[in-house]
Amino acid sequence: METICWTVGEEYDDKALVRLGAVLRSLNYEQIDAWQGLGGSQDIRHWKLAGPDGHITIETETYLGLTIEGPMHAVEQLRQRYAQLP
User: Fold this and answer.
1) Is the dihedral of CA 71, 50, 27, 64 positive or negative?
2) Which end of the chain is more exposed for a tag (fewer CB within 10 A), N or C?
3) 16 pLDDT more than 90
4) CA nearest 66: which of 57, 53, 54, 55?
5) What confidence tens digit (pLDDT) does each residue in 32-76 have?
6) What is the pTM of this model?
7) Alpha carbon separation from 36 to 39, 46, 47, 71 (Å, rounded)
8) Are 70 and 54 in contact (CB under 8 A)?
9) Would you state the CATH architecture of domain 3-84?
């Protein structure tokens, strides 16, 4: 199964995070793990979720942005749903 990573937006974009949450709920994803940390100037938040198309990882990291990594089909479906939001 091919894994891909999609950069949704900037790590500080709360609107993007709220929109992404709406998409995840609509597709029945559930959080199975979460942690956050700070190392020097790097701030990272990490969530692992399980859904109908497998596990995905969402991270916000300083300078890297808001990213989703997981099976290609799952990430592409999230990207399409996200693009359809007003």
Assistant:
1) negative
2) C
3) yes
4) 57
5) 999 999 988 899 999 999 999 999 999 999 999 999 999 999 999
6) 0.91
7) 10, 6, 9, 23
8) yes
9) 2-Layer Sandwich (3.30)
The residues, any chain, with a CB within 8 Å of residue 73's CB and separated by 6 or more, are 53
Residue 86 has a pLDDT of 83
The whole-number pLDDT of residue 41 equals 87
- Which helix (H) or strand (E) covers residue 25, if one does? helix 14-26
Residues in CB range of 40: below 8 A, 6 or more apart:
none
CB 13 within 8 A of CB 66: yes
Report the C-alpha gap between 49 and 27 in whole angstroms. 11
